[in-house]
Amino acid sequence: MLAKIISRSVTGLFTLLMVSLVIFVSTQFLPGDAAVTLLGDNATEEALSHLREELGLNEPAVTQYLRWVGGIVQGDFGVSQTLGLPIGTILGDRFIASLQLTILTILVAAIVAIPLGVLSAIGQGSTIDRTVLSISYLGISIPDFVFGPLLIVAFALPPLALLPSSGYVPLSDDPLAWLRHMILPVTALTAVLTAHLVRQTRSGMLEVLKSDYVRTARLKGLPERQVLWRHCLRNGLATTLTVLALDLGFVMGSIVVIEEVFAYPGIGRLTVFAIGDRDIPLIQATTLVIAATFVVANILADIAHSMLNPKLE
Q1: CA 84, CA 78: separation in Å to the nearest integer?
Q2: Which of 2, 167, 262, 308 is most exposed, with minimal Cβ within 10 Å?
Q3: Tell me: the pLDDT tens digits for 82-99?
């Protein structure tokens, strides 16, 4: 297992290096001039030239990339061109807020989807199975950028006005207020994720229920509950848990839309702000952090799948 962890970690670092290169090259092709964006169209050529030199924009692209990557290795993401603050300071609170939203979404989706998927598989073809599948189809068919505003209209605006439609309160300041602000964005993110996990869990359980070793266990006269718990769940949920770990990265990508819809101060909304203001260092930092989260999630998913399926070692 240790060898696998080391191997996957090395692969993840190489992948992240390639991603950083793609991010850097992509930002170089953004339209416009960062110096003009910061100083305005009426800035003198002398001022623009001085700012380009100060930001290192006159240096070769390779030099800029190596300086950027070298800074990140040392924990220095640079300085935001629009905010004038160290990006590491800006990212800290934003990343924690997004991570809270992501983890809560994963937990809620798992708590809801896994039991429903197992129940649907056990009662294949029953009314419960058809109902669960119908709801999952509905969840998959409604995009989160549509479902989010619908939730705001239904629960945040009069006549109900039960929940806040935007903002964020740190958990340490007021747990109840934190939870109230999390309900709507988590619900919007959970809808599609739950539908996907339900179908994945059902598929995995059906495959296991039809396997030879489960058939043998039943022929031996083992109680159905024991067959399900001992022989079905561990193998049937192995793929589901792997997908759940991968969904951590998926949700980190999806929050870009949801955070903008709910004015949630996370890393996704910060990315939108950076793109709108053409803050290249901030764009590079936020997208790299989201990519790194996805890479780490992939590594964790791979390790979890190996632990649940020792035959893969």
Answers
A1: 10
A2: 2
A3: 888 899 989 988 999 998
Distance between CA atoms of residues 274 and 259, nearest Å: 14
Q: CA 184, CA 307: separation in Å to the nearest integer?
A: 35
User: Other CB atoms closer than 10 Å to residue 123's CB: what's the count?
Assistant: 13
Pick the CATH number of 87-312 from 2.60.120.260, 3.60.20.10, 1.20.120.790, 1.10.3720.10: 1.10.3720.10
Enclosing H/E stretch for 76: none
Compute the distance between CA of residue 297 and CA of residue 99 in angstroms, rounded to an integer: 12
Residue 79, beta-bridge partner list: 86
Structure tokens given for 222: 């083992």
Residue-wise pLDDT for 271-292, tens only, equals: 999 888 888 889 999 999 988 8
Which amino acid is located at 216 in the chain?
T
| Angle, CA 289 vertex, CA 63 and CA 66 arms, to 5° | 10
User: How far apart, in Å, are the Cα atoms of 94 and each of 56, 77, 103, 132, 267?
Assistant: 27, 14, 14, 36, 5
DSSP type of residue 264: -
